[in-house]
Design goal:
Helix content: 40-55%
Distance between the termini: 84 Å
Shape: extended
Largest sheet: 8 strands, mixed, barrel
Number of helices: 29
Strand order of the largest sheet: 11-12-14-15-16-17-18-19
Strand content: 15-25%
Number of strands: 29
Length: 843
């Protein structure tokens, strides 16, 4: 038997007590019955009660009637879901239709049969429960699909591929299968050049390719987007030809190419001999095969073989021993010094790990770090290294040794740890260390792959006083745009960015550009991988003073670094000597073709400019081709003829540009202006929008980033629209009658009138606003106002037009004139309708 706690709740809302008693008697045995005597109390009860199954609502009630209750319920996300049965003594069909149109589930007229209303209510509850259960089932099925589906490609995700492929192999034990793995060459470049939105669209089209491949290929198969830009497919080996699959992929990718992006397909293959093998391991073997031909120009596919198996066995041995190695302290921190090349001071060190194996000797990081990054063990190793460095810093601090900051690595895996910030802050507190002593290095690739989450995490770390370095900048496919958007304190520039070509004019200019732009963004640069004095001198010449590399020292054991620390001049700040200056900036960022990657490819028309506030000159120290195209000059002519960008912005335009720049100096915010100019060697005038932001200040000179956008088409449309509006206004004013627009949502407020109002009745615009308070009814003779108001209000009840009737209208001098008023509904942009009326004097 149900207890009161398990009964469904029915709320009866009726001001007549006999009706409530009758309904309570009908439902009380099976349901928990609550009562309300008016509309306001009904709404209060609905919000207070945890779960009302049905509301029985009388139409006629004091304070707020049933229709008012339904209106309020529709505005509440929870209340609108409650089934409502309206009861009324009025048997008219119009009332019942109105109740249903307001959202009532059903309508019953009084007096009602107890059995009929009981069964109706039960049926309503049953339908509601059925709908709720169906919705829960749909949501559950959708959740299951989402768990198995990669959102970008629409294919299986990695976990689903593992599961379904294992089932397929078990289902067909007598068949041979081959596992295919391929990726998109330079997909990261594609994302950097064209944006992640374009990259996601690319992945979706590859997902479409797999589905078309399934339709054309009748073999049994599974397929998935495995991770990032890697795709896998497991299909029957019978009839499989690797030449065919590479050609199919090539043909599809060629058809897919809509922009200048080269793609070469290479495929890793693994013939499955043991169907009981972990599918993840099969995918790893196909990946080894794929990696074996990544740098091979002529090879398009490779099968996994025994030599690769040896690599796998070696990797497995490392994985088997990693836990014991961590426990036994076999992972040893080494330190590589960092110097200010100009002052010769030791400014810090980077912590690097070495595995001192008891049998194999020293194992270098590139043998085990990639493995640990893939299996997640890197996070435990990172935490171990962080604590080892804290222990070392604490020992130096307690021994009154010179202190320099040590930077430690934070892997991409660590970013996903919700306790990352807490763990690092706890370590610093445990060893009583200042946050400035522990610097954190996060690789450039992490910023591009986990942008939103990483930025949030880095901001939290910096809020606790920790410095964050972007490591290996340039080792991937960095964009200059990244520098101004990411939260970072130091940029670590990888000299591999230039390879051996840093002396090449173009390569040197790119390196120079990165350092100068980072400086403009108040971002110190530390070059790593410096191997020769020539490299160090070149870096110094372009303003990069912080360096580390074999030219200074190889990574060394802690005892050796401590000896060096005792003999060296030191500073605890990497920012020492950092000057926000643009001396010699006339030739700032003198790029040629390499600038396409770093400047032209990511933005529209743009320039870095120097504004001299005293002499009122504006010199572009860097300008891209799109900017030059907008101002109507090519680069050759610009370099030969132009001394100041003000050559293009004269007179009032020059004043507008100066005002924009000086406002940006004053506010520190982005500012803009719109100008009309005639580009050099062009016949027509164009409209441009200039936007600017101050980068850095040096004496009376200010350096800005300026973007230009051609808005001629949009501006011409605006001007043409304004002309059309003026022509229409002139036309309406020429009508020998009064035209008035009324806003019914504001009680017949006058929102527009033509000159006829003044000519016919003497009122000025000011009179209408102040004397009549924009109230149209004050125009009307008091004896006629009620009829005029009723006729016009009929328009708001669905009538499209009010035929002309004669009424007396009051003039400004107090007299009145007989006039015919005709009204028509006029839709507006605010999703409601105003009324336009025409007034003709008939006396």
């Amino acid at each position: 038997m149900d207890t009161g706690m398990s009964k469904k709740t029915i709320l009866i809302a009726d001001d007549a007590e006999p009706n409530r008693l009758l309904l309570k008697k009908i439902f009380g045995a099976e349901y928990c019955v609550e009562e309300a005597v008016n509309g306001l109390e009904t709404l209060e009860k609905l919000r207070e009660l945890p779960d009302v199954a049905v509301l029985i609502l009388d139409i006629m009630m004091p304070k707020l009637d049933g229709f008012g209750v339904l209106e309020a319920m529709k505005k509440d996300e929870h209340l609108r879901m409650i089934p409502t049965v309206m009861i009324t003594a009025n048997n008219e069909e119009d009332i019942q239709i109105k109740a249903l149109s307001y959202g009532a589930t059903d309508v019953m007229t009084k007096p009602f049969s107890p059995l009929i209303i009981l069964h109706r209510i039960k049926n309503i509850m049953a339908r509601k429960e059925s709908e709720k259960l169906a919705e829960q089932n749909r949501a559950f099925k959708m959740e299951l699909r989402l768990m198995d589906t990669d959102e970008k490609s629409g294919l299986f995700n990695k976990n689903a591929f593992h599961r379904y492929t294992a089932k397929m192999l078990q289902k067909y034990p007598d068949k041979k299968f081959v596992l295919i793995r391929w990726d998109i060459d330079n997909f990261k470049v594609y994302n950097d050049w064209f944006g992640t939105e374009a990259g996601d669209a690319y992945l979706k089209k590859i997902g479409d390719f797999f589905q078309k491949y399934e339709e054309k290929n009748a073999s049994i198969k599974t397929y998935a987007r495995y991770d990032a830009d890697h795709f896998v497919c497991c299909q029957e080996a019978e009839g499989f030809d690797p030449e065919d699959i590479t050609k199919i992929i090539d043909d599809y990718m060629t058809d897919l190419k809509t922009i200048d992006f080269e793609y070469t397909s290479r495929v890793g293959l693994y013939l499955i001999t043991d169907p009981n093998l972990d599918v993840a391991l099969m995918c790893d073997r196909a990946l080894l095969a794929l990696r074996s031909i990544k740098d091979s120009y002529g090879k398009r596919y490779a099968w996994f073989d025994d030599s690769m198996r040896e690599t796998l066995l070696e990797q497995q041995e490392i994985l088997n021993e990693m836990e014991l190695a961590l426990k036994d302290g076999q992972f040893i921190p080494y330190l590589q010094p960092q110097y200010n090349y100009e002052t010769g001071k030791l400014v810090g060190a980077e912590a690097l790990v070495r595995w001192e194996h008891p049998r194999k000797g020293t194992i270098i990081p590139n043998r085990f770090i990639p493995l640990f990054e893939r299996n997640g063990f890197i996070s435990r190793l990172d935490e171990y290294m962080w604590e080892q460095i804290c222990i070392i810093l604490k020992r130096w601090q307690d021994s009154a040794m010179p202190l320099v900051p040590i930077s430690v690595n934070v892997s991409r895996r660590d970013i996903y740890n919700p306790h990352l910030v807490e763990n690092i802050v706890t370590l610093l507190s445990k060893y009583n260390l200042e946050p400035s002593l522990l610097h954190l290095e996060i690789t450039e690739s992490a910023y591009t792959q986990n942008a939103e989450q990483l930025v949030n995490t880095v901001n939290l770390l910096r809020n606790h006083g920790l410095e964050v370095h972007m490591d290996d900048f340039g080792s991937g496919y960095s964009s200059l745009n990244m520098l101004q958007n990411v939260p970072v304190d130091i940029l670590k520039l990888d000299m591999k960015f230039m390879g051996n070509d840093y002396k090449n004019e173009r390569s040197g200019n790119v390196l120079n550009a990165v350092v100068r732009m980072a400086t403009a963004l108040r971002l110190p640069v530390l070059a790593e991988g410096v191997e020769t004095k020539e490299q160090a001198d070149f870096l110094k010449s372009i303003g990069c003073l912080l360096m580390q590399g074999y030219f200074f020292s190889r990574p060394m054991m802690i005892a050796d670094f401590e000896a060096l620390l005792g003999m060296s001049k030191t500073t605890s700040s990497l920012n020492e000597g950092f000057v926000e200056s643009f001396e010699g900036s006339v030739d700032f960022l003198n790029f040629t073709c390499q600038s396409t990657l770093l400047f032209n490819r990511f933005i529209g028309g743009a320039a870095v400019v120097e504004y001299d506030s005293e002499n009122k000159t504006l010199i572009a120290i860097r300008i891209n081709d799109r900017f030059l195209a907008e101002i109507g000059i090519n680069r050759t002519a610009y370099m030969e003829r132009v001394q100041s960008l003000f050559d293009f912005y004269e007179g009032d335009n020059k004043k507008l540009v100066i005002s924009m720049l000086e406002e940006a100096i004053k506010s520190g915010e982005e500012t803009f202006c719109e100008i009309m100019a005639k580009p050099k060697e062009q016949e027509d005038f164009r409209w441009f929008k200039l936007q600017t932001r101050l980068l850095v200040t040096s004496a009376c000179k200010y350096f800005f980033y300026v973007a230009i956008k051609n808005i001629t088409e949009a501006k011409c449309k605006v001007l043409e629209d304004e002309r059309k509006v003026q022509r229409l206004t002139d036309l309406i004013n020429s009508i020998p009658n009064a035209v008035i627009e009324l806003d019914f949502s504001k009680d017949m407020e006058v929102v527009y009138h033509n000159n006829g109002v003044s000519e016919m009745f003497g009122y000025t615009k000011k009179d209408i606003e102040e004397r009549l308070d924009k109230n149209f009814l004050l125009f009307i003779h008091p004896e006629d106002r009620g009829e005029v108001k009723e006729n016009l209000q009929s328009l708001s009840r669905g009538k499209n037009k009010v035929p002309g009737e004669k009424y007396r209208l009051i003039c400004k001098d107090g007299s009145y004139r007989w006039a015919r008023i005709t009204g028509r509904v006029m839709p507006t942009e605010q999703n409601h309708s105003n009324v336009c009326i025409l007034i003709e004097v008939v006396e």
